[in-house]
């Protein structure tokens, strides 16, 4: 049967294509248009209101000479890399434990997933109290007789980002665990039987057989974690406010502060553009390898 080509192909599913027009128009006008507007005005001297006075790369030069921005990038790198690694590892380990058909599995799954139902603001405030040295973990341990115990990461500029990381992992690990558990439950039981018959150790079965089969689940988890990393803002605001000093600043907070506190739209647009560029550098090669490679 001859393939449908030319104008006839465009008339197929015409109703669905017409229904998609509002969505496409919204994406073009709001997302692409808004992004283009932000990039263009990052080259201007916009303050409280947008100005069409172009100043070249001056906003970017100021951005990369700012110590606050450099600390923000460093914190995002530390938080992002560790969050991605630990969330995947801890989520997968918890999923493998629950996959053993343990008693009260539903209860454990609900308890572990519950933090994800909370907002980052609630999570940040809760862990601000837990890590407070006056009545948090440090106070409890010292009251047990360990007078020299010290654990106050939110008040130490050198390790404050790791205190934020603890709260972030507590919030997101439950969701990753559920995704991994769904992937494990989708593995054919015959694979487990065959590995036992062949005498393959369980850890090798997971690493060399199960994990490669769960590639789609891992990609989904990575996308979810990465999107949360790039836009991390409310957790920082609720837990540390960017302090002590500027030691826990992140790019999203830098953008907010520049645009609404310093009333410097041009600087905020420049920082936003750099965040967008980072996403593009990561996403485009991955999309090419993921989809373009398969097509070839």
TrEMBL record:
Compartments where located: Cell membrane
Pfam entry (one): BPD_transp_1
GO CC aspect terms: plasma membrane
Membrane topology: Multi-pass membrane protein
Keyword Cell wall biogenesis/degradation annotated: no
InterPro entries: ABC_transporter_permease, MetI-like, MetI-like_sf
ABC transmembrane type-1 domain span: 73-288
Gene3D superfamilies, alphabetized: MetI-like
Transmembrane segments: 18-43, 76-98, 110-130, 159-184, 205-230, 269-289
GO biological process: transmembrane transport
Assigned keywords, A-Z: Cell membrane, Membrane, Transmembrane, Transmembrane helix, Transport
Sequence similarity: Belongs to the binding-protein-dependent transport system permease family.
Record's protein name: Glucose/mannose transport system permease protein
Protein species of origin: Roseibium marinum
